[in-house]
Amino acid sequence: MRIIHPRPNPIVAAMYTLRDMNVDIIIIHGPAGCCFMASRSIEEAGVRVLTTGFTDNDLVFGASEGLVETLKIAEKKFSPNTIAVIGTCASMIIGEDLKAAVKRAGLKCNVFSVDCHGCMGDNTSGAIKALESARDAGIITKDEADRQINIMNAATELEKKCGMAGKDYLSPTRGPTKFRVAKTIIRAIKDNKKVVVAVIAKKELIYRFADIFLAVNEVKNKFNGTTYFIANIDKNIGLPRIRRYADDVFNELSSKGVKIDSVIGGLDEYPVIGEKIKIDADAFGYDLLVVVGIAHAYPNLPKSAILITDQPRQLTNYLKTGYENSVGEISSHSMVMSTRTIVPMETADIIREMLGDYQ
To answer: Over its length of 359 residues, how does the chain's per-residue pLDDT go in tens digits?
Structure first.
């Protein structure tokens, strides 16, 4: 099957993985505009992104001297502890030797290179390259690198089995409004039905998806209802930045009176925890299931489930496969890049607004 809708890029996946390791600087060895939008987002998260800015001459005569110069400028100007040099399609095509340029620069800080490009295939291949390079540079342990690589492979398998990578074309949609699902959640709790809310979040998106817990908890308190909350926010699992996300959100939820009944896995383990989440959800004996985030990681989803995703093409996938109670929190990723607190969801805000109509 030829997939013709846009898919995530291996270079960008490598950049986000480097961000999660808390590297100080990422240098993109390629044209100035390569991965421009991703670079802006990553800089909002506190990682400086630089470019060697390939020109026409670089494509003909080579660009290693430009990389050496950029490395020296970066160390002198910013005094970083770690720099990661990341390859691009352009550097791959002209055969740039990133390791040799890094060695020739002779920097005092920890510098390592990631040989990747946009034509490697699955986006996770870029993340795996970053993990392997970081392992070899002593940034992460072999055990953590192996764990992360297994997760990346599982994520690829999941997307090809039931996600966007398994469909030839999916048109993006903003989907239906959230009023019907908000009303369904409120009514179920009001009628003393058991409601399970399971958040299967991918990394920083937990800052937005966690708002569903706050809203549903308000409904629970108003009607003295029965709800169970499940989330993959184990703050002891994952790369440094990922553990920080989990810690931030867990502490904020606790301070606002929300108890997570079942914590299953870390924020990077969304592809491998679906079965465990399902076991706990089934054990609670729910009447209504709400799955937020990477909903297709939850196996054998009932068609009656409410699904909430941030991906417009994934939302199309859910709606086309019969999950009529699916809604989208589109553009969530751009809202959470620099936050340290929970960001309101539209679905959650509508729940809160509708709840005010009940006396």
So the answer is: 788 988 889 999 999 999 999 999 999 999 999 999 999 999 999 999 999 999 999 999 999 999 999 999 999 999 999 999 999 999 999 999 999 999 999 999 999 999 999 999 999 999 999 999 999 999 999 999 999 999 999 999 999 988 888 888 889 999 999 999 999 999 999 999 999 999 999 999 999 999 999 999 999 999 999 999 999 999 999 999 999 999 999 999 999 999 999 999 999 999 999 999 999 999 999 999 999 999 999 999 999 999 999 999 999 999 999 999 999 999 999 999 889 999 999 999 999 999 988 86
Global pTM reads 0.93
Q: Is 133 exposed, middle or buried (0-12, 13-18, 19+ CB in 10 A)?
A: buried
DSSP assignment of 102-131 equals: HHHHT-SSEEEEE---TTSSSTHHHHHHHH
Helices 240-255, 10-20: inter-axial angle, 10-degree rounding: 70
Query: Would you call 142 helix, strand, or coil by DSSP?
Result: helix
Give pairs for 73-81: CB < 8 Å, separation 24+: 74/25, 74/27, 74/50, 75/107, 75/108, 75/109, 78/24, 78/25, 78/48, 79/109, 80/24, 80/25, 80/48, 80/109, 81/24, 81/109, 81/110
**Beta strand pairing status for 226-231 and 262-263?**
parallel
Residue with tokens 């989803």: 301
Give the count of alpha carbons within 13 A of 19, CB side only. 24
Backbone angles phi, psi at 133, to 5 degrees: -65, -40
Beta strands in the chain (DSSP E): 25-28, 48-51, 82-86, 110-114, 194-200, 226-231, 262-263, 288-293, 306-309, 326-328
DSSP secondary-structure letter at 33? T
Residue pair 225/219 in contact by the 8 Å Cβ criterion: yes
